[in-house]
Amino acid sequence: MSAVFTMDALATMKSEVREYWDERPCGDGLTEAERGSSAYFREIEAAKDRLEPYVHGFAEYARWRNRDVLEVGCGLGTETVRFARAGARVTAVDLTATAVELTARRLADEGLEGTVRQADAEELPFADASFDLVYSWGVLHHTPDTAAAINEVARVLRPGGEALVMLYNRRSIFAAAVWLRRGLLQRRSLEVALATVESPGTKGYTRRELEALFAPFERVEIETIATVYDRRVAGPAAALVPALGWNHLVRARVA
Fold it and tell me: What's this model's pTM, rounded to 2 decimal places?
C-alpha cells in the first residue's frame, strides 16, 4: 500500500516514529532487568526465541561468516550480535539514538566487533554495492516511505547480494483482530487501525504489494507464517492457514 505525502508531512511522521522507538525500543518490555545490563540482553534474547523461533532458520547466521552484513533497524541488537557471533562483519543502523547506544553496549558486553551508527533507512549512508546481505526484521513497515527504504536496500547490495526482510501482513488473522478491536467500533479502516499497533503509521502489506515493492530485485521469495500473535487470536487453528499469518518473510536477491 502507498500514499502520497508532502515533504513536511513525511518529516513529521519520521519524527514521531523516532520519538516512539527512542522511548520504547522494541523488546524492552520483555524483561524487568535493568536496561543495558547483561541480564537485560540475555533475557530479551531468550524471550524473542520463545516468541519468534523461526528467526534462526530465516537468518541462517552461520552462512554469513566472513561476509559483510548490514542490519537496518537494529533495535536492542539481538540480531546484530547473532551475526557477529557467527563471524560476519556486521554494520548496524537504527533511526534512534537509544538503539544505537544499546546495541553498541551489547556488542562490547560480549567482546564482539561491529559498527553501529544512527541512520535513516530511506537514506542509507553507504556507497553502492557495499554489502553481501541486508537484514531487517520488522522495521521497514514503520518508516513513512517504505518503498524508498527497500530501494536503498537494493542499492547497497553487491551483485548477487541478498536481502532478508520481515514485514507485516495486512491480510492476517492478527490484523483482522486489530481492526475488530480498534477499527470497526470506531468506524476506522483497516489501514488506520494498523497504524495504531506500534509506532504511528505502522503498515501491513499484501503479497501482491510486496512483489511491487521488491521490483528492484531479480528474485523474490515470500513466505507467510502464522505467529504467536495469530495464535493468541485463533488458537491452534492459526497454524492451519499460514497464508493468514502476521509475518511475511521476504528473501530477495539482486542481479
Answer: 0.94
